Amino acid sequence: MSLSPKITLISADPSRLDPAAIDQLEASARYEGIERVVGLPDLHVGAGIAVGAAFWSPDRIWPHLVGGDIGCGMGLWELSSPLRKFRLGSVERKLHGLDEPWSGDTLAAVAGFELPPNLAGPALGTIGGGNHFVEFQRIEEVVDGERFETLGLQADRVWMMVHSGSRGLGQAVLQAHKTEPVSAGLLAAGLAGQAYLAEHDQAQAWAVLNRRIIAQRFCDAIGAEGRPVLDICHNCVTPHLGGWLHRKGAAPADRGLVAIPGSRGDFSYLVEPIADGADRALSSLAHGAGRKWSRSDAHARLSARFRIADLQRTELGSHVVCEDRRLIYEEAPQAYKDIRRVVADLEHAGLVRVIARLRPLLSYKTRAAS
Asked: So which residues are the catalytic ones?
């Protein structure tokens, strides 16, 4: 495999990576001002830009390298609910009304995050579509018992993972700051670059707030309290090594603990970045299993083989709440790569140590109004 010298692939066997996604990395590496590109083990084709990648420039930013879901990321909470009292059927029956606008004080919420009042819209506190979800989990295996204990974590509790972003806000920011041609980007120090960064940072903060409100809504629904363990962003641009680091579907390796989810029918991993290998991967990690099939391919392949009822339970015994008849096929476990291999590649590269493995109990995506 002949690659641009700007590109680093984090994979024990790069031949397993999708050649079309690597072609997208090559195209981005040709942008004037891009000096380094990293493809992570979950690398897959995106809408013009490879997902599962990081890009560094000393002085330029590209809004489309971040994409339309600015601030999309993952939050993880340890709940007060003992695992022994968690009843799947009971919990599933309680999860209603969570796709509707939040009934809380949105103006106070955005003010608390130093965001303007016009961002207190009805989408705040909602999951959204696509691959976003809330998942209740349990600790399947504590891999590093000493570190798990040092962090004060508890294996006998229910855990909750929230994956969501900035909803329509990030897309509006992208549309307002598109560059033609897209390869040109923006000088970070210029007026246009500064304007984009200001709105980007607002969208990123809104996404963090959104995950917090979603978590509170789900906790309230099941009568639990939640302790935040981490919140990380997968789509963003940040200052890094005197320049600008763009992450498109990539978790940060410089913000503490990272949760790497599998598909809704697979395990997720709680990992700790290893600083020694961070520079090689632009301080970035895989953000999930990564898609194996596009959404349209997944629907075409699976809708003829499985009934919807078949996909409402997984091989691990977990429940799936998804009342969108197309989305349940598009986001089926079969459409995703093997999370074990993704995490093994990160370990092989010396980028992470695994602390614990989490088993899905119930994955929530969307439910029709009752």
From this structure: 287
